[in-house]
Amino acid sequence: MLSMRNIRKIYRTDLIETHALHDVSVEVRAGEFVAVMGRSGSGKTTFLNIAGLLDTFDSGSYHLDGQDVSRLTDSEMSRIRNEKIGFIFQSFNLIPDLDVFDNVDVPLRYRRLPAKERRERIEKAVEMVGLLSRLRHLPAQLSGGQQQRVAIARVLAGEPRLILADEPTGNLDTLMSREVMDQLEKINEAGTTIVMVTHTPECASRASRQIHLLDGEIVDLAALPPEGPASRTVASLAASLR
Amino acid sequence: MILHNVRIAWKSLKRNRSLSVLIVAGIALGIAVSTTFATVRHSFAKDPIPGKSRGGLYYVRMDSWDPARPYPGPDATLPPTQLTYRDMAEIMKSDIPKRQSGTFKTALYVFPEDKTTQPFRENIRLVYSDFFPMFDVPFRYGSGWDKKGDAGPEQVVVLSEAMNDKLFGGGNSVGKTVRISDRDFRVVGVLAHWEPSVKVFDLTQFQIDTPENIYMPFNLLKPMQLRTFGNSDGWGSSGGQTGFDGFLQSETCWIQMWVELPDAASLAKYKDFLAAYVMEQKKHGRFQRPLNNRVSTIREWMKDQRVVPPETTAMLIVSLLFLAVCAVNLVGLLLGKFLARAGEVGVRRALGASRADIFLQHVVECELIGVVGGAIGLLLSFAALAALNAWLKTTVVNPRAAFFHLDVPMVLLSVGLSLAAGLAAGLYPAWRTCRLSPAVHLSLQ
To answer: Does the residue A3 lie in any domain?
Structure first.
């Protein structure tokens, strides 16, 4: 589903270069539920932005669903994001002026689906997250958990092949987090690939596989050398991630 | 998608009301000023007789002026604005024009049938029968008189709608009698409302006056010894004759002359005829200036008479520049407004919006601002024009009710300017907003 080879991403300013990702190679098979873990600044969000075609990379190759995305135009990438990828954000990212119905409608509008089909998809998706009675509520009238469920409904309505979730439970309490993770598990069981960035071990444990990022590199925790000052530092960081 | 974008734009306007009011007010002010001055200019410049302003109907001038000096005016190359009576009478004998009419304005006392109403002095226009079809004058009742009426001359009149209301309380007054001066005149026609944009048939003075309310056969000028109440320009003596006949034989220019020439061939032929007439007159000692006949279209005649005051053109240009300044001033505000919503744009981009979608969304918002600002500007323009019309009443002798008014072309211009201003103000901010990468937008959330 997702195949990255030696992806490198450097942020440049006039004075400094920041290596956000350094030769990152990741394979995610269709139907997998992968958790990407790492400390703040480890490159998780950059990885997710590149995976979701929201940002470009400097070198390496990236195939999404078998398609080389390195040479796509902006509109082609937009179309792939719209049709194949669903995003779930930590801060929900619902549009405050739009009610639940219209928020879920946003990606469907960009797909130019007919009104009848959009309505059917929206109602079905909102029903799946249990918010059909709140269809005309504004985000501000919903709790954080409900807002995240609306964001999940927005993804579900688009029927994507890949879901990219960036700390989906980061702004939720334990109970709400569990509800959201239950939803994601259900979606994954239905066959949708999920790549989730998290620093919460409980959430990561729900995934079928975990990838660890450290200073822009993939780290295999099991393969870390046991001794040495440098490796001790890495090991201590890795331990903090477990 | 456009309607959806309009909905989004409307929500966006409501979100930050004070900023939206500021932006809309900027556009409204620019539109109000530019629409007002465009309408002022348009009121003078618009086609007074649609279909005939660029050809067909021609104003005739000949240079019978003083050989020692050119006819006074801003352009020394132009002949006198009017003809002498005798020249008009002679060229009226030509059978080349399809229609033709000399015309001038006089003033006489009208004695209403109702003895309780005071007699009043009224401006009266003397015309030939061809005048009415030449200027597409609309009739409510009856018609103009015929050639026999010209030749008689018959004591007949055509009344304006307002005069018919005043003398006969409206209704069909054809066949009724009205006493003017010391004679009775039979009403043969009553005009429907007729108010060409400028008083096209007499641009020699008071160009924005209402047309006269009474029309009578031109040839009555001799038996009634009527003199002009319009402009008259003279330079020479009357050749020894005195009195009214002396006036008619003088070099005084006081008659306006119109001809209808349906095609280029008849126009060329008529110009040759006039040239031949002048050359013949030269043999008799008249027309000692170089040959300088003018057979002008309405547009040309309006230009020569400077019907459109140059100040109105200057004011229009300044007002358009003002609108441009208003629009440019809004660029920064709109850029700030759009970038403040960068997070939302990032979400939309993540959900599949292309750059073009984001650009269109923001351009629609700018155009909505333009339309709302334009609508308010149009209302302000209505008020400004009403004030100008009120001012006009204090400065013009016989002004029409609303000389400056917004007609369909001006409303369309205002809409066009509103959209252009919205686009000018919003194009760069919309472009900047859509160019940011989605990741950057999301990071600004």
So the answer is: no
